C-alpha cells in the first residue's frame, strides 16, 4: 500500500491544463447557517473565486466559524470564545513546513515543527506535557479525525495535510472546546475544505524548493445541477528533505473529493472522501555545541540542514533479524470518508448529523540519538565497564580502521507500526424559540490501534552528517557490536487496544437584549478502553554468551499477555456571556471545566488519572475597517497530568498539575489601501503544581512548565500594489520565541531566538500567480528541544538538541480559472 505511483503520475501530469479538469478542491463541511442571511453569505463564500490580494492573516471578522459551536456557526466577531481563523491566502503566505507548523500563527500555542512533516510537539496555554500534542484535536469538516489527540508516536497532525484544497483553518483555545466534538479542553483545530459553487473554478500549481523538492497541487469545483456541487483535488510531492540523508526520504500525496446537495432553504448534505499516503523523514536531535545561551554548530555538522541518517544507515538488519528501512520515515497511509447532514425538520427545529470513518496505518521509523558525541575510547568504557579499551574500530561496511580518539555516537533504529481505525458520529437537534436557542446532542466514537514496537536497537556511528556504522572490539576481545549494533530492543510492544466514548451534551444560548447574549452547557462523557498487551522479559542475553555485549540486556516479548480494562465517566461544563457595544466592538467572559481521559499508552502503564482543567477567560473584540483586534486574558488550573517518557531506554512517569496566567493578542492594522500589518503574541506564566517525575522522586513544583516560553510573538507586514493587470505583493514575518526549558527540572535551557521569513507574489490578470517564499532567512540556530531521553541537564559543550530547519526557498507557479 506504500506504492502510489499510478496516483503520482496522474497528479504530476495534472500541472498541464488537462489535470485542471481532473482534480478539484476537497470538501468543506461548513454546516447550514442559523439564518437565511448566514446561508446566503455561506453560498457566496463557497462560490466566489479566490482573491489573489494580500491576505488578512487572522481572517475576516465577518467570516462564519464552525469550530467551538454546536454546528450552527457564528460570526467571528460574535464568538464568546477565543478563536483564530486562517484563510487559504494566509496559509500560503505563512508557507508552513507541515500542518503543525501553521499553528505557530495561533496565539497561546507553541508548535514545534523541527521534527519534519510529522511528529510535531504542540503545547497549549501552559498545559503540562512532555511532548507530542496531548491537548490538541484536529477536525476535518467539523468531525475529529482520530479521537485520541495523542498516542505514543501518533498525534493528530500526522494524519492531516494542508494543500490548495483547504479553504481555511479554524482554531479555538479553551472555551467551548470542552463541550463539543471530542470534548477537548485545550486546542481544537478544524480544517475547512473548499466546496463547489455555482461556477466552474479550478487551479493547477507547481512548486520547487532549493533543496530539490518538487510538488504539484490541483483542484477543480463547480455545479452538477442547480442544487448539487462537486469538488476534487489533491497534491503530490517528492524529495530528500531539507536535512538530506542522501536518499528519497519525502514522498507522497493526497486526494480529496466531495459532493454537496442543497435542499433549498431547508438544509444540505455533504459526502466526502479523502485518501492520504505520505511519509517524511522523522527529524530528531543532532549534535550541536551549547555554552549557556550561546549556540554553535558541532564541527562538520550543519545545524540547519545536517542529517544523521545516510545511505549506510538507511537499511539495516537488527539483532532480531528484521530489516528496517529509514526511508519509510514517519507518516500515514489512511482513507477517510464522511457525511454531514443539516436539515430543518419543521420550522425552528433543525437536525444535524456528522459522521466520519478513518482507517489505515501510521508508522514511525527513525534514527534516535542516545547521547552526544564522545571518543571511541570513552564509549568503550561505557559499553565494557571500567578499564575497557579499544581493541579495534572499523567501518561496519568495510573501508578501514579508525583510532581510539575517533568521535563517535550511538543512535537507536526505532520501528513503530500502528494500524488504526476510528468511527465518529455526532448527532444533534437545535430548537429555536424567540431569542432562545437550545441544542442537545449525542457523540459516539469507536477507535482502535494495533501496535508493534521495537525501540532501542542502538548502532555505533561516526559523529558526522550521513553517519556510517562502526564495529568495535574491546581490548580484551569482547564484541561490543554486530554489524554496528551495540544492543537489541530495549523496549518492545505488541498490543491491541479498543476505545469507545459516549457523550451527551446540551447548550442553551439566550439573547437577553440585542447587545447581551449568554450561554451555558454541560457534557457527560463515558470513556471505555480495553486492551491486550504481550508481556516483556527484560535484560535477556539472547545467545547466553556474556562476551557478545551487543545482545545483552535485550527485552523480548515472551508470549504471555495481560489485559487493560478502564471505564469511567465525567461531567464538563461551560458558561459564557458576550456583550456587543456595537456590531464592531464587543467583550466576552467565560468559565469552563474540561476533562481529559487517559489513553491507550497511559493505561498500558497503569496511569489511570483523569485530568481536570478549569479555565477562566475574558476578551475584547474590535473589527473596524482599519483595525481588527482580539485580546484574551486567561487563567488555567490543571490537575491530573499522567504521562510517560522513555528515559535511558526505560519508561519514566510524570504526574501532577500546573497553573497558568496568560494574555493572547492577535490582530491586523490596515492604515491605507494595499498595506496590512498583522501581529500576534502571547505572554504566559505557567508553573508546575504538585508535579513529580521519576516515580515521585523529583518534585518540580514551582518550576516553569517545560517547552513553553513566557513570550512569543510574530509580526507580518504586507503590501500589495495594483499596476493594472499586474499585482505584486510583498510580505515578511519576524517571529520571536523566548527562553524555555527542555525539561521539567528547568536544567536544559533552550535560548530565545528570532526567525525571519519573507516572500513576494505577483498576480497576472487574476489568472497566473508566481510566488517565492523564504524561511529562516538569517539561518538562525533556534533550538526547540534538547535531549528528551535524559533527565536534567546535558552540561555544556557538545549536546543533543533539535534546531529549527535552516534557510530555504520555495518557488511556485499557479494557474487559476
UniProtKB/TrEMBL annotation:
Q: Which residues form a coiled coil?
A: none
GO molecular function terms attached to this record: siderophore uptake transmembrane transporter activity
Q: Which Pfam families match?
A: Plug, TonB_dep_Rec_b-barrel
Annotated TonB-dependent receptor plug domain residues: 76-186
Spell out the subcellular localization from the entry.
Cell outer membrane
What membrane topology was assigned to this protein in its record? Multi-pass membrane protein
The TonB-dependent receptor-like beta-barrel domain covers: 425-777
Region described as Disordered: spans on this chain: 34-59
UniProt keyword Repeat present = no
Q: Which InterPro entries match?
A: Beta-barrel_TonB, Beta-barrel_TonB_sf, Plug_dom, Plug_dom_sf, TonB-dep_rcpt-like
GO cellular component, as recorded: cell outer membrane
Q: Which UniProt keywords apply?
A: Cell outer membrane, Ion transport, Iron, Iron transport, Membrane, Receptor, Signal, TonB box, Transmembrane, Transmembrane beta strand, Transport
**Keyword presence, Transmembrane:** yes
Quick one: signal sequence residues? 1-18
Q: Which domain of life is it from?
A: Bacteria
Q: Which PANTHER family match?
A: CATECHOLATE SIDEROPHORE RECEPTOR FIU, FERRICHROME IRON RECEPTOR-RELATED
Q: Which family does it belong to?
A: Belongs to the TonB-dependent receptor family.
Q: What is this protein called?
A: TonB-dependent receptor
Q: Which organism is it from?
A: Allosphingosinicella deserti
**Source lineage:** Bacteria, Pseudomonadati, Pseudomonadota, Alphaproteobacteria, Sphingomonadales
Amino acid at each position: 500500500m506504500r506504492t502510489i505511483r499510478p496516483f503520482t503520475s496522474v497528479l504530476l501530469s495534472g500541472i498541464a491544463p488537462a489535470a485542471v479538469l481532473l482534480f478539484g478542491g476537497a470538501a468543506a463541511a461548513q454546516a447550514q447557517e442559523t439564518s437565511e442571511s448566514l446561508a446566503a453569505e455561506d453560498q457566496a463564500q463557497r462560490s466566489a473565486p479566490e482573491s489573489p490580494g494580500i491576505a488578512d492573516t487572522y481572517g475576516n471578522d465577518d467570516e462564519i466559524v464552525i469550530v467551538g459551536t454546536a454546528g450552527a456557526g457564528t460570526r467571528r466577531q460574535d464568538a464568546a470564545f477565543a478563536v483564530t481563523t486562517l484563510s487559504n491566502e494566509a496559509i500560503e503566505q505563512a508557507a508552513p513546513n507541515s500542518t503543525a507548523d501553521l499553528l505557530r500563527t495561533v496565539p497561546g500555542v507553541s508548535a514545534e515543527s523541527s521534527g519534519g512533516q510529522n511528529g510535531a510537539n504542540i503545547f497549549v496555554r501552559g498545559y503540562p506535557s512532555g511532548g507530542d500534542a496531548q491537548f490538541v484535536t484536529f477536525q476535518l469538516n467539523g468531525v475529529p479525525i482520530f479521537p485520541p489527540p495523542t498516542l505514543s508516536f501518533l498525534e493528530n497532525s500526522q494524519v492531516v495535510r494542508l494543500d490548495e484544497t483547504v479553504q481555511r483553518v479554524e482554531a479555538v483555545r479553551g472555551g467551548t472546546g470542552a463541550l463539543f466534538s471530542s470534548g477537548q479542553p485545550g486546542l481544537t483545530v478544524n480544517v475547512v475544505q473548499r466546496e463547489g459553487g455555482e461556477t466552474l473554478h479550478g487551479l493547477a500549481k507547481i512548486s520547487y524548493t532549493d533543496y530539490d523538492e518538487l510538488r504539484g497541487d490541483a483542484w477543480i469545483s463547480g455545479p452538477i445541477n442547480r442544487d448539487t456541487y462537486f469538488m476534487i483535488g489533491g497534491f503530490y510531492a517528492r524529495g530528500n528533505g531539507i536535512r538530506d540523508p542522501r536518499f528519497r526520504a519525502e514522498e507522497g500525496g493526497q486526494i480529496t473529493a466531495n459532493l454537496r446537495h442543497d435542499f433549498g432553504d431547508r438544509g444540505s448534505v455533504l459526502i466526502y472522501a479523502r485518501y492520504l499516503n505520505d511519509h517524511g523523514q522523522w527529524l530528531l536531535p543532532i549534535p550541536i555545541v551549547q555554552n549557556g545561551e550561546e549556540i554553535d554548530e558541532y564541527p562538520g555538522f550543519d545545524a540547519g540542514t545536517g542529517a544523521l541518517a545516510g545511505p549506510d544507515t538507511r537499511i539495516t538488519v537488527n539483532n532480531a533479524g528484521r530489516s528496517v528501512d529509514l526511508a519509510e520515515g514517519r507518516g500515514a497511509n489512511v482513507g477517510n470518508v464522511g457525511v454531514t447532514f443539516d436539515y430543518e425538520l419543521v420550522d425552528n427545529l433543525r437536525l444535524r448529523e456528522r459522521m466520519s470513518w478513518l482507517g489505515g496505518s501510521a508508522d514511525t521509523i527513525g534514527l534516535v540519538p542516545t547521547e552526544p558525541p564522545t571518543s571511541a575510547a570513552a564509549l568503550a568504557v561505557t559499553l565494557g565497564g571500567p578499564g575497557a579499551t579499544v581493541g579495534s574500530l572499523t567501518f561496519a561496511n568495510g573501508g578501514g580502521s579508525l583510532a581510539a580518539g575517533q568521535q563517535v555516537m550511538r543512535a537507536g533504529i526505532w520501528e513503530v507500526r500502528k494500524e488504526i481505525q476510528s468511527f465518529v458520529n455526532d448527532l444533534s437537534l437545535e430548537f429555536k424559540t424567540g431569542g432562545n436557542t437550545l441544542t442537545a446532542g449525542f457523540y459516539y466514537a469507536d477507535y482502535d490501534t494495533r501496535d508493534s514496537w521495537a525501540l532501542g536497537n542502538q548502532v555505533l556511528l561516526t559523529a558526522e552528517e550521513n553517519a556510517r556504522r562502526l564495529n568495535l572490539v574491546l581490548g580484551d576481545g569482547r564484541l561490543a557490536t554486530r554489524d554496528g549494533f551495540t544492543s537489541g530492543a530495549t523496549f518492545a510492544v505488541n498490543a491491541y487496544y479498543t476505545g469507545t466514548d459516549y457523550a451527551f451534551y446540551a447548550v442553551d444560548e439566550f439573547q437577553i437584549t440585542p447587545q447581551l447574549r449568554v450561554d451555558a452547557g454541560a457534557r457527560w462523557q463515558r470513556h471505555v478502553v480495553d486492551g491486550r498487551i504481550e508481556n516483556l522479559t527484560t535484560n535477556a542475553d539472547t545467545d547466553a554468551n556474556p562476551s557478545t555485549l551487543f545482545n545483552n540486556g535485550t527485552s523480548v516479548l515472551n508470549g504471555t499477555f495481560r489485559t487493560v480494562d478502564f471505564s469511567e465517566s465525567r461531567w464538563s461544563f461551560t458558561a459564557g456571556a458576550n456583550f456587543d457595544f456595537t456590531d464592531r466592538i464587543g467583550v466576552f467572559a467565560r468559565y469552563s471545566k474540561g476533562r481529559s481521559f487517559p489513553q491507550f499508552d497511559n493505561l498500558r502503564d497503569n496511569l489511570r488519572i483523569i485530568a481536570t482543567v478549569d479555565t477562566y477567560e475574558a476578551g475584547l473584540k474590535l473589527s473596524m475597517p482599519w483595525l481588527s483586534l482580539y485580546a484574551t486574558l486567561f487563567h488555567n488550573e490543571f490537575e491530573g497530568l499522567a504521562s510517560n517518557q522513555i528515559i535511558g531506554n526505560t519508561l519514566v512517569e510524570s504526574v501532577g498539575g500546573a497553573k497558568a496566567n496568560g494574555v493572547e493578542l492577535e490582530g491586523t492594522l490596515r492604515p491605507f489601501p494595499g498595506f496590512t500589518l498583522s501581529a500576534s503574541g502571547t505572554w504566559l506564566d505557567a508553573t508546575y503544581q504538585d508535579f513529580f517525575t521519576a516515580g515521585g522522586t523529583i518534585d518540580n513544583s514551582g518550576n516553569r512548565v517545560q517547552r513553553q516560553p513566557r513570550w512569543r510573538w510574530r509580526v507580518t507586514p504586507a503590501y500589495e500594489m495594483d499596476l493594472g493587470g499586474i499585482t505584486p505583493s510583498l510580505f515578511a514575518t519576524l517571529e520571536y520565541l523566548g527562553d524555555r526549558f527542555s525539561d521539567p527540572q528547568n536544567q536544559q535551557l533552550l535560548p530565545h531566538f528570532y526567525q525571519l521569513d519573507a516572500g513576494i507574489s505577483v498576480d497576472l490578470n487574476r489568472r497566473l500567480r508566481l510566488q517565492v517564499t523564504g524561511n529562516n532567512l538569517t539561518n538562525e540556530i533556534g533550538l526547540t528541544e534538547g535531549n528528551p531521553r535524559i533527565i536534567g541537564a546535558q552540561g555544556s559543550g557538545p549536546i543533543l538538541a533539535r534546531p529549527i530547519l535552516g534557510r530555504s526557498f520555495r518557488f511556485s507557479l499557479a494557474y487559476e480559472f
